[in-house]
Write a structure and sequence with these properties.
This protein is an all-alpha fold. It is built from three helices and no strands. The chain has one domain. α2 packs antiparallel against α3. The longest helix is centred in the C-terminal third of the chain and has 34 residues. This is Coiled coil domain-containing protein.
Length: about 100
Amino acid sequence: MTKDELLAKINTSIDEQQVKLEELKQKALDESHEALDDVRAAIAELEPKLDQAKAKAEEIAAVADETWDDVKESFESGWKESAAKLEEGWHSFTDKLKSFLS
């Protein structure tokens, strides 16, 4: 995978997660106080993970093209780990929210 391909994949994922987080923030405005506390806690948990993903993308973007092949595996592995943590946090929250709202 080229640096540009990995960055495109990362930025797409970040954009998708950012949309979900914004929807979550909007939902927090519409829910009861108990649910609101849960939503705020989830937002507080998810925002740092999203920030970490953005930082990883910036780190990859800063790598010189001529050194990309030397560091590619490390960055791809790091991104997979960051993406998995972000997705896990999102799924954990949505499962809690679904059980609360049902």
